[in-house]
């Protein structure tokens, strides 16, 4: 399975999962609650059961999986980023955003499952991962090496994106130019932390594509 975990209130914990479930004869996109733990690190994150009202059947208009090619992305020069002699693949899917609480939409599932109201202007942070089952992240996590300390938080690991707007732009606070005396004080007493999350086409050895 392919997962997108979403932090909608900026506290570093995952509030909702979107799962692409193609196990066996199942072909659905589904919204699921995180488990009862803190959900702010790999070791504290589990995934709750899928409920029928939060499932969307895959079809040609909302799901596409295909081998990487220059026809799909002109200009590509490397079709096997992890050098496992297999051509990588693209996974593309889409889900409705707007909907009433309890419906199979991002707005509806976030309200019905997490109790959080979001709008088109709400910045969201994301974790991407794969798994072989529906209740945990037990394969690869986007942006992280194959070996990492799962007790560290998503933020400490760099495994969660900075807050992003729906159009993919970074949600940055407005730039404030301080007075000269304030600027000098900030230089001596402040610090700047830059968090950069690399979302790669291939996650570990799984060949999963995002």
Shape, principal axes of CA atoms: globular
Give the amount of beta strand, in percent: 15-25%
**What share of the residues lie within helices?**
10-25%
Total number of distinct structural domains: 1
For the record, give the distance between the C-alpha atoms at the N and C termini, rounded to a whole number. 12 Å
Can you offer a commentary on this structure?
It is a single chain. Residues 179-210 have low confidence and may be disordered. It contains 3 helices and 7 strands, in the order ββββββαβαα. Helices cover 11% and strands 17% of the residues. The two termini are 12 Å apart. The chain has helices spanning 106-114, 154-157, 180-189, and strands at 2-7, 16-21, 28-32, 55-57, 63-67, 89-93, 125-130. By secondary structure, it is an alpha+beta fold. A 5-stranded antiparallel β-sheet has the order 4-3-2-1-7. The protein has a two-stranded antiparallel sheet with strand order 5-6. The longest helix is centred in the last third of the chain and has 10 residues, at 180-189.
